[in-house]
């Protein structure tokens, strides 16, 4: 039997950050994961460049049943903490649109730096190990794992759940973290895909435009997201869509504006009375999209022939097209999981359970979902740091 101050289940972003933070304080830490290498999502995030944070991190960029929960951890861990971390480890980075920070080399550099720091501080690695059983004891927790060395029992005074959610199962994701939470009487907000494309209904008028990308604005649940939209074989994707998916619930309509930067009425007025409507819109939008948006009868009219009702119809089609997605593209296409462990029974300062002493939840396993752009990885670092600083050494009694 191996005994530690803390056992951390999950060697992803939040788990490794928590491990290196706690181990640097002198705690004995064991990291358990079923993967061959730690930090798989870090290594493949951002197309292998890892969008590791965002300069504009703000609590308003996160959704969950309690929108205030993330404030404490975020207030104590800024984007500049991550910039400093990369600088110390000589990892080059760059700023892209909307404050997104990426590694300029390979995301492997960041994952390897975290792995090396954990090792330097004495973290015990138990990779390629599957958790068989978890039990609370009078002094903490016992975790039974099985791997190449057979079945082993680990004990600790604290247990950290950094197992993420079921999104992106091809990267090894499961719902085990949610199952552990329920084992210890923690309610779980039902998991759903987030940062995920939408499949549109069969009667949607804009089918057949696969491959077209345009700047657009999508309004969902009262929030407007303005960025690129991409038409796919089954529906829509692109940054604006992924943002909206964090708020979307089945049956909820989307409102789409395909010319967010200008007014279709002004464009028609400036064109004069002679051009055909489809000609004017064809100059502003990809031709196939313009033809799909404009009713054929209106498209063939000259601008001067339009009635007020015709203009209202065009405005609605171009600036406020409303449609309800049939579904999302599911967990396999989702970058993150929305929902998760209800934060109502978690300390926002330490990430410790208020129902079960010594039990901590960090990262994506919690009901905290960030928008696209580095916000979810920043939450992993921030929540991992909060728990890593709060973990207590085992009692010497």
From TrEMBL:
Keywords: FAD, Flavoprotein. Pfam families: HI0933_like, HI0933_like_1st. Residues 5-388 form the RsdA/BaiN/AoA(So)-like Rossmann fold-like domain. Its cofactor is FAD. InterPro entries: BaiN-like (IPR004792), BaiN-like_dom_sf (IPR023166), FAD/NAD-bd_sf (IPR036188), RsdA/BaiN/AoA(So)-like_dom (IPR055178), RsdA/BaiN/AoA(So)_Rossmann (IPR057661). SUPFAM superfamilies: FAD/NAD(P)-binding domain, HI0933 insert domain-like. Coiled coil: none annotated. Residues 192-336 form the RsdA/BaiN/AoA(So)-like insert domain. The keyword Plastid does not apply. NCBIfam families: aminoacetone oxidase family FAD-binding enzyme. This is Oxidoreductase. It comes from Desulfovibrio psychrotolerans.
């Amino acid at each position: 039997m191996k005994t530690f101050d803390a056992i951390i289940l999950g060697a992803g972003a939040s788990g490794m950050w928590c491990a290196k933070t706690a181990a640097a304080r002198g705690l004995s830490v064991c990291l358990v994961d079923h993967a061959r290498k730690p930090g798989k999502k870090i290594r493949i995030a951002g197309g292998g460049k890892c969008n590791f944070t965002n300069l504009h991190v703000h609590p308003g960029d996160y959704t969950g049943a309690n929108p205030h929960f993330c404030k404490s951890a975020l207030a104590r861990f800024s984007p500049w903490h991550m910039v400093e971390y990369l600088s110390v480890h000589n990892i080059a980075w760059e700023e892209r649109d909307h404050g997104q920070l990426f590694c300029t080399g390979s995301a492997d550099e960041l994952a390897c730096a975290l792995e090396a720091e954990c090792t330097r501080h004495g973290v015990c690695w138990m990779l390629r190990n599957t958790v068989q059983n978890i039990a609370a004891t009078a002094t903490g927790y016992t975790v039974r794992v099985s791997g190449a060395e057979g079945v082993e029992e680990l004990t600790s005074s604290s247990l950290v759940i950094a197992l993420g959610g079921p999104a992106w199962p091809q990267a090894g994701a499961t719902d085990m973290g949610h199952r552990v939470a329920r084992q210890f009487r923690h309610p779980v907000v039902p998991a759903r895909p987030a940062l995920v494309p939408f499949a549109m209904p069969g009667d949607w008028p804009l089918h057949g435009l696969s491959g077209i990308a345009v700047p657009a604005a999508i309004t969902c649940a009262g929030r407007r997201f303005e960025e690129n939209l991409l038409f796919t074989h089954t529906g829509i994707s692109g940054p604006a869509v992924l943002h909206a998916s964090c708020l979307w619930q089945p049956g909820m309509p989307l409102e789409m504006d395909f010319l967010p930067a200008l007014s279709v009425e002004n464009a028609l007025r400036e064109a004069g009375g002679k051009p055909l409507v489809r000609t004017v819109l064809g100059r502003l939008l990809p031709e196939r999209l313009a033809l799909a948006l404009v009713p054929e009868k209106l498209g063939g009219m000259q601008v001067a022939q339009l009635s007020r009702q015709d203009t209202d119809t065009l405005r609605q089609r171009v600036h406020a097209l409303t449609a309800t997605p049939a579904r999302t593209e599911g967990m396999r296409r989702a970058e993150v999981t929305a929902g998760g462990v209800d934060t109502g029974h978690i300390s926002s300062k330490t990430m410790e359970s208020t129902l079960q002493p010594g039990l901590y939840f960090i990262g994506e396993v919690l009901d905290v979902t960030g928008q696209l752009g580095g916000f979810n990885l920043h939450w992993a670092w921030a929540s991992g740091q909060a728990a890593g600083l709060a973990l207590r050494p085992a009692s010497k009694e």
